[in-house]
Amino acid sequence: MEETKTNEAGGGVGLRKRGILPDYVKPLRYDLKITPNLKSFIFDSHLVIRLEVKRTTSQVIFHSKDLSYSAVSYRLADDDGAETITCDEFHISPKKTIVAFSFPKDMTQGSIVDLTIVYTGVLNDQMAGFYRSSYQDIHGTTKIMASTQFEAVDARRAFPCIDEPAVKSVFGVTLVVPQELTCFSNMPERSRRTIKKEGGAVYSEVEFLDTPRMSTYLLAFCVGEFDFVQAESRGGAMIRV
């Protein structure tokens, strides 16, 4: 997969008025699995975007900022025998904060495809996107936490997406964190399992329930050493603070 960086992503493929991305594809849902490292300030990610193809195309364009890509492919959704089409080149425009993935075979109009993207990002210190911050606990020890600030246009710092308020999708979030850390997202937990990494480190893989259809800037998650209290409301809802 060859990478190029230009001021015009996608070999001159233009944006629509006001910088809106071409509407060749419509994201139906994002399934995002992120493994943040609070020591190296890097996060590893595996993303599957389910797309409705509105117009036959061999290229898809997303908003993206400060992300590094290692593997991109697509296949027809819900078809175990479908061919996997691997991205042969991609173009990054830092100026426009977009990335264009090109494929040797068209996505055909009317089809539903799953686009799989493996990438890494940086836990920046700019309070934008998926960022890091520090605080002192009651003992005066400095701690690091990671949290998100996507409004208005910084979801693109955490995952490639159509980062426009009018474009709404369902989000499935999974966070893989050291077992001693706590993590949260918009929705309650669906499941939690323990996994072991190289060197014997123990992690929790926490999957959250799907969100309603919503804009990218509304997605949120955080990771850190958090304490909380919880209680059940009169209506039976679990409330955690």
UniProtKB/TrEMBL annotation:
Alphabetical list of InterPro entries matching this protein: Aminopeptidase_N-like_N, Aminopeptidase_N-like_N_sf, Peptidase_M1, Peptidase_M1_aminopeptidases
Record domain Aminopeptidase N-like N-terminal: where: 26-218
Keyword field: Hydrolase, Metal-binding, Metalloprotease, Protease, Zinc
A Pfam family the protein falls into: Peptidase_M1_N
Gene Ontology molecular function: metalloaminopeptidase activity; peptide binding; zinc ion binding
Organism domain of life: Eukaryota
One GO cellular component term: extracellular space
Alphabetical GO biological process terms: peptide catabolic process; proteolysis
Keyword Protease part of the UniProt annotation: yes
Listed cofactors: Zn(2+)
Entry-linked SUPFAM superfamilies: Leukotriene A4 hydrolase N-terminal domain (SSF63737)
Record-stated family: Belongs to the peptidase M1 family.
Descriptive protein name: Aminopeptidase N-like N-terminal domain-containing protein
Source organism: Corethron hystrix
